[in-house]
Write a structure and sequence with these properties.
With 383 residues, the chain is of the alpha/beta class. The protein has 11 helices and 18 strands. It folds into 2 domains: 263 residues, Purple Acid Phosphatase, chain A, domain 2 (4-Layer Sandwich), CATH 3.60.21.10; 112 residues, no CATH class.
Length: 383
């Protein structure tokens, strides 16, 4: 049997204020095409379909379109993540055809979706506060940690699997931070009670763990025979992910064992960081179609800095002014206090012009001076 594993779509997300719905549609079109090309028996979506509990209408419409497209060619199994609302994601799931399975309830943890002879156990995101009583199996709730609730869920999964024919292959879908995984800036912490991680061996006894939550494709190590893998997000959601090759995972389970491979996804736009003086950056001839983050290193803040950069790089997301002398001191507050006071008034003036479109008043610039002097005095006192 062949499966396509993906997760962390985060539909409805923005990138530094830029709507990503068109970019998300572009990469999900590729996911649908890969499902057809690879002739997969099922698509596994391991949580964080949406970026927030109440997603925008455009995000819901896109998810509906993708589900309809995939359901025409294969089975689709979806679980909720820590960003999803279980109620909203699971709404109408009892009305879906046999081609679409959306699992958001704790009640069906030990009920697999059978794809041929493969038992797929879709675990919704297990919030410890909600799951520690439901999964306790007794009057006392489980400890308030992800490890406790995931261990209890996996005990139920293994008990169900043990009652099935010995030849049954198995997959568990889970949304969690497994010890040893590499994080990105765009992931929301799932710390609860100071314990946010799950041991890799928690998933022992199954053939494959289709993981969601971490945005970089990776394969945590375990001492068991279970293969654990994060498919990663299909789109880059922060500059910390700019060098990641985004992909989906194609998984084959057969008599020879378990085989996984990544199928790369083309990104609608590359992400680049640029650093240099304004004149040098404006004279460049590349990166104009990329999402860029730019650091200007001129000694003094250039006039109309953002507008001039925006005219040259239309998809710029962030612009910083860090003079070269400041950069050599790691951008510390101490280095900032050594900057000429006039730069504070210039910075304040640029900010007011950008926000209001009019020239700043002297009284407004005085406020910037006063705040700077107060911060300097507090720093000196702290020393």
């Amino acid at each position: 049997m062949r499966f396509l594993h993906t997760s962390d779509w985060h539909l409805g997300r923005t990138l530094h204020g830029v709507d990503l719905i068109d970019a998300q549609r572009a990469v999900l079109d590729q996911v649908c095409q890969i499902a057809v090309t690879e002739a997969v028996d099922a698509v596994l979506i391991s949580g964080d379909v949406y970026d927030r509990a109440v997603p925008p209408v455009e995000a819901v419409s896109l998810f509906e379109d993708v589900l309809a497209t995939l359901a025409r060619v294969t089975t689709v199994i979806v679980t909720g993540g820590n960003h999803d609302s279980a109620i909203r994601l699971g709404f109408g799931s009892s009305l879906f055809t046999d081609r679409v399975h959306v699992r958001t309830s704790l009640d069906s943890i030990a009920e697999p979706v059978m794809v041929g002879d493969v038992a797929v156990y879709p675990l919704p995101y297990l919030d410890p506060d909600a799951a520690r009583s439901a999964l306790a199996g007794g009057p006392e709730p489980l400890p308030r940690s992800h490890q406790a609730v995931m261990s209890a869920a996996m005990d139920l999964v293994r008990a169900d699997l043990a009652a099935r024919p010995g030849a049954t292959r198995s997959i568990v879908m889970a949304h969690a931070f497994v010890v040893g995984g590499a994080v990105s800036d765009s992931e929301r912490s799932i710390v609860v009670g100071g314990v946010d991680s799950v041991a890799a061996d928690t998933f022992a006894g199954l053939d494959y763990a289709a993981l969601g939550h971490l945005h970089g494709p990776q394969q945590p190590q375990t001492s068991s025979d279970t293969i654990l893998r994060y498919s990663g997000s299909p789109l880059r959601y922060s500059f910390s992910e700019r060098t990641q090759t985004k992909s989906v995972t194609v998984l084959d389970l057969d008599a020879d064992g378990v085989r996984v491979r990544a199928v790369a996804l083309n990104q609608p736009r590359e992400m680049t960081e640029l650093t240099g003086e304004l004149a040098e950056l404006l004279a460049g001839t590349a990166h104009e179609q990329e999402w860029v983050r730019i650091t200007i290193t001129d000694r003094s803040r250039p006039e109309r800095m953002f507008d001039r950069i925006k005219a040259r790089y239309p998809f710029v997301l962030q612009v910083f002014h860090v003079p070269a002398a400041l950069a050599t001191e790691a951008g510390t507050v101490r280095a900032a206090t050594q900057h000429h006071t006039r730069a504070v008034r210039e910075l304040g003036g640029d900010f007011i012009r950008y926000v209001t479109g009019v020239e700043p008043l002297e009284a407004e610039l005085d406020l910037f001076d006063g705040a700077f002097e107060t911060a300097t005095a507090q720093l000196a006192a702290a020393e």
